[in-house]
Amino acid sequence: MKREIIFTLAIASSLLAPALLKSHQTVRTEAATESFYKKMECENIKGYEQVGQDYTVKLSGSAARYDNNFKSIRNFVAHYYTGEYACSPYNEETRTVYINDKAVERTVNLTGGYITSDENGKSTFTFEAPYSTRAELRVRVSSNVNKTNYSIGTLNLTTVLSASVNGNSIAIPETAIVEGRNDATADPQQNVTGAAKYGLTKESQVKAEGNLDGRYMTQIFKTVSLGTVVLNKGTNTITFTTKVKAASGQYDYIELIGKEDTVTLNNTTTIECENMATDAVKIGTDENGNQYDACQYGAFHKEAYLGYEAPYKASNDGFIHMFDEGKYMEWSFVSDEFYKADLVLTGATNKGINTSNYSASDLYLATAIKLYVNDKLVSIDSSLKFAGKAAGEADPQNRNYNAQSNGDSLNGRYLYLLWDSVTLNNIEIIQGINTIKLVANSGSESGHWDKIALTPTTIDTVNKKAFEFAGNFSTTVTCDPTGNTAPSVGKWNEVAEIYNNLEDEVKTKISSATGRADGDDLEVMVATYDYIIAKYGTSKYVNFMNRSVISLVSPFAGNFNIKNNAFVTVICVIGLLSITAIGYIVLRKKHI
Length: 592
Description:
- By secondary structure, the protein is of the alpha+beta class.
- It has a 5-stranded mixed beta sheet with strand order 1-8-20-13-14. A 5-stranded antiparallel beta sheet has the order 23-26-33-29-30. Strands 2-21-9-19 form a 4-stranded antiparallel beta sheet, with no helix packed on it.
């Protein structure tokens, strides 16, 4: 009988042990946010041999390794070693154990356990996350490579393990290594040699029979990072698959550590431009009074830009300066829903500065920058601008003198700090990871930038339904990656019927999307759709979205053009599932 253990992550700390949930203040925005820390015991993951606290072997699924020669002794070892060799959960206790049915006082770990697996052994762990987020995935693992007496080989997880989150493969880093070790003698903890029978209780029905000499070498656990993963709000699935038979590692627990820079967009969220990812120059001071500015004019900039009060004072004492052509600012965040949102940009003109008559020209944003939201260029109304100043007298705050550092004049410098705000409405925010990126069109007239604020205004039901349809399509219509096996016509007709019953604005959103194999879920679905009707023809697969039929140069192996001239390669995957049975959760398919 298959078993599945489901853990629930909740924002309320009272729902989890304090050690398993941590609350953070975000370090990249002005809004408070929650992060979470979750440790999951591998012996509770289905699909592997499980070494549990009741001192028995529990199996679930044919993929688990069932080693009759060593399964009992592994159970004992899981409890027998303590300290740095202990398996979690850790519950050390000095008690009577039995060696060859003789009572002996030993310190044991009553609750520790780990898992081991055979070649192609697969484990699946399903859990609930309270919101879409990014998290670091870690695993505590020990080597079981080439154990000989008191030596053990190095375990490289890239060669023995593959992993995925919600069906998306994880690129296991080369740093995911558990080093080996070569000891001349046994560790002091290991002082039992020769064949023997071991038991934690006299009445134990399962006793380890074998030689413990050097067994501790297989329990030199190390926690390694598998990188940053994206989690959906709601149900998530992590899958491990081992690649080799006897030396695939021994797994103690996995951890998910919420990223402190994760922001859940459910109210107005503001980020300081100096805290965004950028290759522009940052002007400002940190909490210790240190300058952000790293250029040769840092001392002068501190004199020139940081001595003003409102309205010339930047928020949080920092801003972006010298935003050269092609340079960028980028903000990545997580949204728990599809939203239409207002984007407020706060900056200042650096166009037409005249320090002799204290004037500055309006800076029109459409000419100063390009704005991308989730890799899509956003049109900026030509009237939006950071206001300039007519010629006149200097402001009373103006410091009319030369900076001692290099003799440059501070006269009229406040003109760079005429902070102004503009609002762009109806910005489309998707569920999951979002990215807002500003790219400068001109180094001399790109503006100075103080902060960005995003306020969700309404639930974007059109986008929501479009992405839901994309998910249903992708999990229902399948084709062989070689192109040799056509999709099911019946399944194609099912999704066509669902599409035809959608509201007109949702259909327009779907049918007008650009197909991109490396895009979001909707773009990938459209690219797949275009490939299918191009390869197999519209007489068999009705062109229910009325998209232009592309011309394939070579079947599936090559690149092909799709609507709006995108250039992509599509590989069709995913199993046949009924649309009515799908609970679709969106995950942006992009690396973080």
